[in-house]
Write a structure and sequence with these properties.
Largest sheet of chain A: 4 strands, antiparallel
Number of strands of chain A: 4
Largest sheet of chain B: none
Strand content of chain B: under 5%
Shape of chain A: elongated
Strand content of chain A: under 5%
Helix content of chain A: 55-70%
Helix content of chain B: over 70%
Number of helices of chain B: 3
Distance between the termini of chain A: 74 Å
Oligomer: heterodimer
Largest interface: A-B, 12 and 13 residues
Shape of chain B: elongated
Amino acid sequence: MLLATEAVTHAAGQAGISEQAWLIPLLPALSYVIILLFGKKMPKGGSESGIIAVGLSFGLAVLVAFDWVKNHAVVDQHWVWWHNGDFKITIGQHVDGLAAMMFVVVTFVSLMVHIYSTGYMHGDVRFTHFFASLSLFTAAMLFMVLADNLLQLMIGWELVGLCSFKLIGHWFEEKNNSSAALKAFFTTRTGDVGLMLGIIVAFFAAHGTFNIATINKMALEHEIGHGLLLAIATLLFLGVMGKSAQFPLHIWLPDAMAGPTPVSALIHAATMVVAGVYLVARVYGVFWEGFSIEAGGLNWMALIAGITMIIAAALAFVQDDIKRVLAYSTVSQLGYMVAALSVGAWTAGVFHLFTHAFFKALLFLGSGSVIHAVHSNNMSEMGGLKKYMPTTFTTFIIGTLALAGIFPLAGFWSKDEILLGASEGGYPFILTLGLIGAFMTACYMGRCVFLTFFGEYRGHGHPHESPRSMTVPLILLAIPSLLIGLINAPGILKFTHWVAFEPGVEHFHLEHHDFNPTLAGISLAVAIGGLVVSAMVYYWQNVPAGLRGATDRGALRSVKTLLIEKYYLDRLFVDGLVGFIKGPLARATYWTNQKIIDGIVNAVGIGTKIVGRFTYDILDQKGVDGIVNGIGVSASETGGVLRLVQSGRVQQYALMLFAAVGLLGLALIFFT
Amino acid sequence: MPLTQFMLLSAFLFCTGVYGVLARRNGVLVLMSIELMLNAVNINLVAFSAQLNDAAGQVFALFVIAIAAAEVGVGLAIVLLIYRNRVAVNLDEIDLMKG
């Protein structure tokens, strides 16, 4: 094993600033080290280091993105990290449209979160550590995005998981928070087992390479068998289910609300959860062939994504905690992204990731602003905040409308593309669920807004608008939430050209479907319908008498209970799975340990002793020693006999010589 | 001349030599007996050489004479040194190599 710095470049055309893309993750990583070492001595507790580093990264990311738009040159470089014989482990950068887009999104949202946190976390006990972790979190995600091989991607992936664990458990003094951090970590780790196995299988299937571009190419050119691809895709998707909170491993995400709100924004918008979606988009060749996406109908990934969309949206209705509403909304939206990828609408899925990052970060930071004002997460203690917090209200409304998919905000365009992709790709199941999900999304977001900002204030104290360090990021996030969707509007359609899946395979071409006014009209009508229904219930309170209190009666009541209990999934996992492990399994293990393993150990011990005794007594003492002594004694005896011959008299020797010669002479005469 | 007479003479000399080597106690006499044996062999070699009209035997005899001279030189030197150390050349008494 030795270090080597051997750079391999395959840059098509001239690539300028993009070759320096490795600086983008490096700067926050450096900031992490600086904050850890000197943070407490800095005038602003290390926050300035994080903001400067992420700000520089954002600047660089924008330059890289412009470079990509202008030159369209893929940067594909790697350096040998270490090699062992012919086997090389490399570390590299693969900068294309997807990576450039992710750089911009991650650095922008992270920058907003950094600035916002200086206000939100002001006076926190571990202020410096918080910023150190934020920097590392950003660096890890950017490192993952930069990866040109699966191994590097997994390193970034795991680092992201670690940082989210640290940040969710930031206020670990409370048992609930540290449990939530552990839950997030263990649940994602469960999926990561699949990821790891998938990467190993992919490595051997691709004849010993981790390179993503090569694996994609081999998958699409059918150099890897379909069965193997299905196995790889299924295993990798297990990792995605954990990380991107797909049913049934979504349970950690709502609990992750235990962390500080800026962290929730970062986790939900830019880093942690979109890592899974990014993985699918990056290794799309494997998923495309493995799940036979082209065939249409239904596949494993689409099924999971469809279930996730609906069940998470349903759960958002019964939450009182404003952050939990948003958390389930994220789970549902992640379902949309994965669904888009599962029906072959690659650009739509990535575009939704892109737009969702802005408005979901906006919503989370907005909810953080509200929580900061009323000192409670519960919507039952809010209400009427419209007049106290005008900036937060306006930006939150923009985020809500964008998420609900109202024309012409960001979410409208991306959600419409997903529905169109499902329709054109031959997935009516996903189309139906997507429309139902769109209705539910508008409905629960309407509920959230009406409960929080309208009506009378139900909490304690006097709510006030948040400081400027918190409202400025809200405004900066509201602008892209309003407008960013337009870059893929009909007539412009730039995003499709900028960010595309181009594996460089001859016969392979992903179809992109342009705007469809009919479908867009339907989805818009559905979204407005959702908002109106929620307004009827929560704003006008104009529910027909027959339906009033319907959720507390009959069948609907059990549905409500089911939702409040989160489909009993936590019960299933905690009582069923963990309880099973803790109780009977632990006892069984103890019994096995005492009776079987100890028995085996004891038997082995006794057996060894018997064998040892036998060896000592019979083999060693009698056998080996006997032979050794025998050889000695026989040598000594033989010597004693031969000694007599050695009289020292020359003439006796001569006599023997002549006698021998005489005997040989006689033998010569008689036997020839 | 018939070959047998040379061979008889050679055998007589050789047997005399063997007797001298085995029976005499004096080291010098043992050496002389060895000379007798060597010369018995020389007679044989020369006789056969003449009989078969082949010079190789005579050349061999010359080699034996040369080697014998060297051997007597070494042997007499050893005997002389033994005499100096022990004031005797009786082989019975020289048994340092007794095992």
